Amino acid sequence: MELVELVNQQVGIKEKEMLTPGQVMKAMILNGLGFLSAPLYLFEQFFVGKATEHLIGEGVLPSHLNDDRLARALDKYYAVGTTQLFTAIAIKAAEKFQVKMNSIHLDGTSMYVHGEYAKPSEKGVNSVKIEGEVKIQESKPESEMKAIELKHGYSRDHRPDLKQFIIDMICTGDGDIPLYLKIDSGNIDDKSVFVDRLKEFKKSWTFEGVNVADSALYTKDNIIAMIEMNWITRVPLSIKSA
């Protein structure tokens, strides 16, 4: 797939970096395949005793694969855009392995998290005591690149008590190869975003095949929006005639 080279091209590298962003991503994948449930601060320990120079690159030691380096790489992926980066990798893989594009399948799922995950506005005003005086800290302006929000929403895991985020993914009918990934805030409704996901996918892939999704796709607005697309879905049982 030439994963490392492609990620470095998309994200960019610095001359003095011991590990490139592509190598960090490769290490993350190896870690996920072998030790998925481990927290990120144990990332370095996973590679102790493993042939890191052979697996990742010349001169790479387990000590280089620490959580600080991982965090900096994750920030870079975010700055580029996770959907853009994922799509670029998927396109490369599909071309390399000649994946057929006769049909694609879209679905969303929820991933719950533990903890409060309060927004800055929910945490109250910060104050700092300086030489007996209390000085109010002004909140920093919101970044131009808006992050997702961990919120309560419809939980596929039946945990409405916990906040969550949403993963929308498109896979090909040929081997269920993932081609598109979008991460959303926890309260996003499938019905409101599914068509947008399919259209965004079509722009990246120039796709003319059949779009398949569950009954969340079947709404009046969505059907009108898909007038020039080929699609298959199931009529929701909430409709009397169904």
Commentary on this structure:
By secondary structure, the protein is an alpha/beta fold. It folds into 2 domains: 3-80, no CATH class; 100-232, 2-Layer Sandwich (Nucleotidyltransferase, domain 5). 34% of the residues lie in helices and 17% in strands. It has 8 helices and 7 strands. The chain has a 5-stranded mixed β-sheet. A two-stranded antiparallel ribbon has the order 2-3. Helix 1 packs across helix 2 (21-35), helix 1 packs antiparallel against helix 6 (82-96) and helix 2 packs across helix 5. It is globular. The termini are far apart.
Task: Give the SSE map.
Elements: H1 3-11, H2 21-35, H3 43-46, H4 52-55, H5 67-80, H6 82-96, E1 103-112, E2 127-130, E3 133-136, E4 164-172, E5 178-185, H7 190-205, E6 210-213, H8 220-225, E7 230-232
Parallel strand pairs: 1-6, 6-7
Antiparallel strand pairs: 1-4, 2-3, 4-5
* Strand order across the largest sheet: 5-4-1-6-7
Q: Which sheet architecture does the biggest sheet show? A: 5 strands, mixed
CATH domain topology of the largest domain: Nucleotidyltransferase, domain 5
Q: How many E strands?
A: 7
Distance between the termini: 45 Å
Mean pLDDT: 85
Structural class: alpha/beta
